[in-house]
Structure prediction request, 1469 residues.
Amino acid sequence: MDFEALKTDAQNAWDEFSRPGRPRVLIGAATCGRAAGALDVLEAFRTQLAEHGLEGEVALTEIGCIGLCYAEPLVEIAGPDGRRVLYQSVKPANVKMLVESHLIKCEPVTKKALAVMEGDALDGVPRFNELPVVAHQVRIVMRNCGVVDPTNIDHYLARGGYGGLSRALSMKPEDVIEEMIASGLRGRGGAGFPTGRKWSFARRAEGDEKYVICNADEGDPGAFMDRSVLEGDPHAMLEGLMIAGYAIGAKTGYVYIRAEYPLAIERLKIALARLKERGLLGSNILGTGFDFEIFIKKGAGAFVCGEETALIASIEGKRGMPRPRPPFPAQSGLFGKPTNINNVETLASVSAIMEKGADWYAKFGTEKSKGTKTFALAGKINHTGLIEVPMGIPLRTIIEEIGGGVPDGKAFKAVQTGGPSGGCIPAQHLDIPVDYEHLAEVGSIMGSGGMVVMDEESCMVDVARYFLSFTESESCGKCTPCRMGTQHLLQMLTDITEGRGRPEDIEKLKRVSEAVAQGSLCGLGQTSPNPVITTLRYFEDEYRAHIERHECPAGVCRELIEFEIDPEKCTGCGVCVVYCPVNAITGDKKQPHVIDTAACIECGSCRSVCRYEAVLVHGRSEPALAE
Amino acid sequence: MDMITLTIDGNQVTTEAGRTVLQAARSAGIDIPTICAHEDLPDYGACRMCVVEIDGVRGYPTSCTTPAAEGMVVRTQSPALTRLRNDVLELMLSGHPNSCLVCDDREACEAFRPGVTKAGRSTRCGFCSNRDGCMVRDLTHGCQPQELDLPTLYCGFMLERDDPFMVRDLNMCILCGRCWRICEKIHGQPALSITNRGRWAKIGAAFGKSFVDSGCTFCGACIDICPTGTLTDRYARWYGHSDVGWRTACQICPEGCEMQAMVKDNRLTNTQMTAFDREARLCAVGRFAYPQIMYSTRRLRHAMTRENGELIPADWEEAVQSVAGRLQDYKGGRFVAIVSEANTRENLFLYERFAVDVMGGRLGRVPADGGFEDIADEALKSDLQSGAIKAVLVAGDYLDEDVLEKLECVVVADCLPSAATTKADAILPAAILAEVEGTIRTADDEIRDLGKSIPAPGAAQPEWAIVRDLAIAMGGEGFECEAAGNITPAITDDPAPAPLGRSPRDVLKAIPARFRGHLMADSVPALEQIGLPASPKPPAPKLTTGFPILEKGEVVPNFYTLTVKAPAVARHAKPGQFIIVMVTETSERVPFTLVDWDAEAGTIKLVIEEVGRSSGEIATLQAGDMLAHVTGPLGLPLTIEKVGTVALGGGCYGIGAMYPLARAYKEAGNRVIAVVEACSSYTLYMENEMRDLCDEVITVTKDGSRGRKAGVQDVFADLARAGAADQLIAIGCTFMMKMVCDATRELGVPLQVALNPIMVDGTGMCGACRISVGGETKFACVDGPFFDGHQVDWDELASRRSAYKREEIEAIPQTGQHAGNGEATAGLTSLTVGGGVCAEVP
Prediction:
């Protein structure tokens, strides 16, 4: 079947799926939705539709993640009138009402509605594109996420999918690379190396056999961009992988994906099967003589396997440990052959660029950082979730408008970008444009797109300690500076947060950080001190408070704080008593309660559940300073 | 070959294309420090010591992994590189016990005890079996990086004792990866790799499997390429570095692999591969069995003849004449000689000439891994079974009792006892393996020279010499020769030995079970662990009565605390006294100081440092196990009086030992200062107990990681000079006590020390613990253990303590499981010698 015929069939399927007047229910059932209970909601819809005899009439479809994690589970309902409404935080108990009201009576349930996706306006409910969280976004990588059925290749095809591949196959590989260079796309895995140039190295390398690899070993704590794309729109990446393969002259592609992403793996497997059925994978693709196979390789969860040389070793069946470059994978990679590695987001951009052209893509972003970037917003922020924004957008816009600011009226303190390899950016730099250069200037990195927001109740020493505990335990152990240096950094940070810091530790942290950054073999080690370096750069006072006064200004470090209940504010509601894991809180009903500081483990549960801000935190009167 | 030219430190260096910057630099005589790089291994880049600066390259690339390129400009020295290397080295040292490297007393210590002290887990260089070959130590010479002032992060891995041939102390590993890389290079798929991540990263077999099940063939390459004391050869580890070596060939099986004989003080320590490549690999017995067979305590050492039904030692000439006389009667078809093919060509040649030309009989050749049934000559076998043959010269364990029964004359030329030796009319002890010179022919029909030899035990002679002497005594002609080399030219058409089915170098199961008909596992107990048969052994006696261990724990690496039920000892114990322990009914007697006791509960407490066989045995016991004997309290209690201020100093086991003294002095109304000494913070213990007890506790460490960077002697000298102590007491290793003595000799404060010589009975009978104090001979067990430190002859004590060094090492069990009863025990169990040697105990 030729490509046009494929597209015609696909268009028919898509038209049927999105035909106005055809009632349907879409449920965001990616991993994030499922964690929030989407599968129970799905089951509830199934039951309700059956009870009302609608199972034949209303299409019930699982879709990917649209990015609004804070509002999960998300359900989009289209009634017979063609109006489509997005509902938030849907619980199984809400389903009966939604079915009866919206699907049967065509009366949308305004109080659960988040936005109107299509059709007539609804009082008090904004249109989807007008939501502050959506308004600033430009969705290229996530163009289909939460919109299509990820298991249905026709949906992808109908929305322009594989048009990029088809176009690429009609061009010379060198011209495809030129197009990629012209688009200005830079690797989204972290380092930001120009994708087209990377391809040209692998293209020029001599070898009878070459490989392309999709790096889907997303490991930064708090980052889930790749997972969402693979779960919501696997073809966007697969098409990019095939284009990359064609451009460099590879016949085999690997998707290296962590085994902790079972749903993404399942979706990928389905996608590969569909591609084969349509003749879009295998030999002589689209009659062009291009042969290509894709294999899925599951990683076992080592963070370092996201580093390209470690990833290659892992695919080869060896222990995932980085090796020094040169030689670069483009010269000698998988099984010693020229190899190109791109991450999921890069490849999902590639397919869009080849479909719509380099000029179109280059319109987004800044001069040196083109296109869009996805970020996983997490931490102390109202709209946690996945966003895609044009490069160069002010950091403030992301935090305050898209993210909706810090919850509970607390003050913004810093945002960590780039995961454990990145650094924290304090409030005074909130107005920088988000692109590779500016992030580097303030000491952080773009990284793969994790963004963890911290508020006034976050202790920056503790944050550094947390990230170091991650890199310390994820260090592969091969090279000395990373293996030993991260242990020492972690030890010192732990000592400081537990009140055993010494004044010389600050200088020592800097010296050890420098040795680790300069001496380590791979990116994991070289960047591992970044959280220490940036928190020291912007929050040295906080370190000094821990060391010199044994105080944790944010009230986080357990060894340095005590909790106390303000009798003026306490209403005696007793909620804290329920949440206290060690029964340290006592008091009569409706009377001010007290905390037994000897029994208290300073977990902070009482403070977080108190609605009256009656739980006070202050420094210890006699810090337990064990030598 | 393409050549390229680059600039290194301003010098034009021309080298072959494809070499690394490190190789190019070395070819030009420019040294760059490194540990993980090895000329026989592929690039790795892990230790990060060989960093350089290259124009146009960002950061500090490692020279071992960077290909040299035309026109490249490299700097190997700069202030930034020195600083980075020092920092990296300091980081490396912080994960490797290193207190000896930074200790102020290092030179004096190494002069006083030039050899290393054996230990379970090594906590510092002085207790590391590879001290003299350690590359980490070499790197620190000339630079003592302490800029970062990092604590040592001791990993706390348990000593891996279960391996058949190796002991692994992963606490010393710097993860240079040499071991698994050589394993991969030689065997394709490595049997070991780095496992785990971060601080728990360590080398090991997949999924924590035993190496026996990991595909490991025990070639030993990982041990020989390890730059630290992490991987060691269980048998050879404490012998120290070899001083002589030569190329030889293995005589155990017909593969006849080339190998390097490693010799120290005229004794073989081990045999190693001749190069780090696949072709040179050895099998487990090639790498590990030689010295254990050669130094088996069962070796035949004396010529013996049977007189009036009894085998009695005879001098060589006498024995030869006696045998010659006996054999005269059996010339002709009634005589055979039976020898193993695993023998030198010279030996085989003379055996054949003797059997055929002199005796007119036949020669039976037994394949290397064979027994009687494998003799190819069927007629010869049936003649032996039928009794047609009346006399044999047998060079191995080949004849069973049925056959022996029918013989009238049995002459044995062999190295180990067998059924034939019990029946023998005469025994002529044979030199074997590295004790013989000559040549061998391999199954592949190659001739290999054995190189040099070392002396055989006792009267043992090479077999060619045995046969020569017999032949000459019986009138044989043309047997005169002075060396194996005299015989070699005459050998022209000797047959190649029968090959083995599979190579033991590739398949563990193909390792021959027998050497000269003897089960090798009887001499090399580790072979039983890999499935080779051994002779049945009597089961180890199970203790039914004794002294139960109530609690046991490793308080700091290599130091164990034991609480033992011993009511009578607990009832009578006084401060300063000790006990003698026997772990089993046949164990060595070892003295240990009483650290604490509870007369009411009937318990005593000990602190035991693992050093050798007996303390190792105790280290592997668990709560609930039993000690066969606890004898005590022994020795004179320390006289405790009110003297004012008493300073007690203890190191190692001495920290525990000074505890009851501190308590007694305190109870007597003294002000008590305790000086607690350890090499590093991670070997300090009982600090809090001492703090609860004493008026003042001064902590000193040799690396400065806790308290003052000093030794007990420094604190004592300061106290004495300041008039702040009226009595000094030191308990610890001999070196520490000697240092204290030297430092305080002129300062006028009395010093008592607890001496720790070798001790056996502990009751003044044997004299083993003889020492000289003030020119008088004393026995530490009944006159001590406390003496006036300034009167002690320390050099004599040190010399007497090391009198049985070799035997102590040989007594360490050679099986992974501390089962006892291995043959290595036989030399020492009953003993007169090794008592108390193991433990640094008063």
Remarks:
- The first strand of chain B starts at residue 3 and ends at 8.
- Confidence is low (pLDDT under 50) at residues 818-842 of chain B.
- Residues 79-93 of chain B form the longest helix (15 residues).
